[in-house]
Write a structure and sequence with these properties.
Layout: H1 2-15, H2 20-29, H3 37-57, H4 60-80, H5 85-107, H6 110-123, H7 126-137, H8 146-165, H9 169-189, H10 206-222, E1 229-232, E2 235-238
Antiparallel strand pairs: 1-2
C-alpha cells in the first residue's frame, strides 16, 4: 500500500505541472492552432468531477491533483479563447456545468459513479484526438505542447498503477483510457505523415482538379478562344 500511495502522490505532484508547457507556449505565441479548447473544457470538467470524488472519499492525492488540473485547465482556456464575449460566455457556461457536475458526484450513490468517472479518461481526449488527426493528416503546424502530453502519459500511468493497487475501478478504468488516448495524441504530435499516404494537402485531389480543368477549357471555347497547354513540372496546365 505504501508503494501505491507513493505512486499516487507522485502522480498528483507531477499533475500540477501538466498544463505548464501548454500555458507557456500559449502565452508566448498566442497561437492556438491545432489545440482543441473543447478538450481542455471537458478535461477541466473531468477534474471537477474527480475533485468532488476525492473530497467525498477523502483521497488527498486526488484532491491535490485535480485542484491543480482544474486551475491549469482554466488558465489554458483563458489564453486559448478569443478575448471578449465568447470567452466570457464559455467560462460562464463552464462554471454552471462544473457546479452541476460537482453536485452530482457528491450526491449520487458511489457505485453509479464508476462508469461515468472511468469514461472521463477518453471523453476529455476525443476532441483533441480529432483535431490532432486532422493536423497530422494535413501536415499543418500545431500549437499543442508536446511536454504536456509526455507528462499526461506518465501521470496517467501512475494513476493506473494506483487504481489497480487499491482496487478502485473508476480510477483504473479512467487511467487506462487516458494513457492510451494521450499516447495516440503524443505519437501524432511528434511524427509527420508518411509521404506514401498521399501527396501534399495543398493540392486538389486529381478528380477535383480534372473537373476544374474541364470547366476552364469549356469557358474558353465558349468565348471563341482556344486553351493553350504547357508542360509544367511534368503536368499539362491550362494557361
Amino acid at each position: 500500500m505504501l508503494l501505491a500511495s507513493s505512486a499516487a502522490y507522485t502522480a498528483a505532484v507531477l499533475g500540477c505541472f501538466i498544463a505548464v508547457p501548454q500555458i507557456v507556449l500559449l502565452a508566448r505565441t498566442r497561437d492556438a492552432g491545432g489545440l482543441s479548447v473543447r478538450s481542455w473544457e471537458i478535461g477541466s470538467l473531468s477534474a471537477t468531477a474527480w475533485l468532488a470524488y476525492g473530497l467525498r472519499v477523502d483521497d488527498p492525492p486526488q484532491i491535490l491533483a485535480n485542484t491543480c488540473a482544474l486551475a491549469g485547465g482554466l488558465v489554458v482556456m483563458w489564453l486559448a479563447l478569443e478575448p471578449g464575449g465568447r470567452r466570457r460566455r464559455e467560462l460562464r457556461a463552464f462554471g454552471v456545468v462544473a457546479g452541476l457536475v460537482g453536485l452530482a458526484v457528491v450526491t449520487v450513490p458511489l457505485p453509479w459513479l464508476t462508469a461515468p468517472l472511468a469514461a472521463t479518461g477518453i471523453a476529455s481526449r476525443l476532441p483533441q484526438l480529432r483535431v490532432t488527426a486532422a493536423t497530422w493528416w494535413n501536415r499543418r503546424s500545431s500549437s499543442v505542447a508536446v511536454g504536456t502530453w509526455v507528462m499526461t502519459v506518465s501521470v496517467a500511468s501512475l494513476w493506473l498503477f494506483y487504481g489497480v493497487a487499491i482496487h478502485d475501478l473508476a480510477i483504473a478504468g479512467s487511467a487506462t483510457l487516458s494513457v492510451s488516448t494521450a499516447a495516440l495524441i503524443l505519437a501524432a504530435e511528434t511524427s509527420a505523415r508518411p509521404a506514401w499516404l498521399g501527396g501534399s494537402s495543398d493540392r486538389l485531389p486529381a478528380s477535383v482538379a480534372d473537373v476544374v480543368d474541364v470547366q476552364e477549357t469549356a469557358a474558353l471555347e465558349l468565348r471563341g478562344e482556344r486553351p493553350v497547354m504547357e508542360l509544367v513540372t511534368g503536368e499539362l496546365v491550362t494557361l
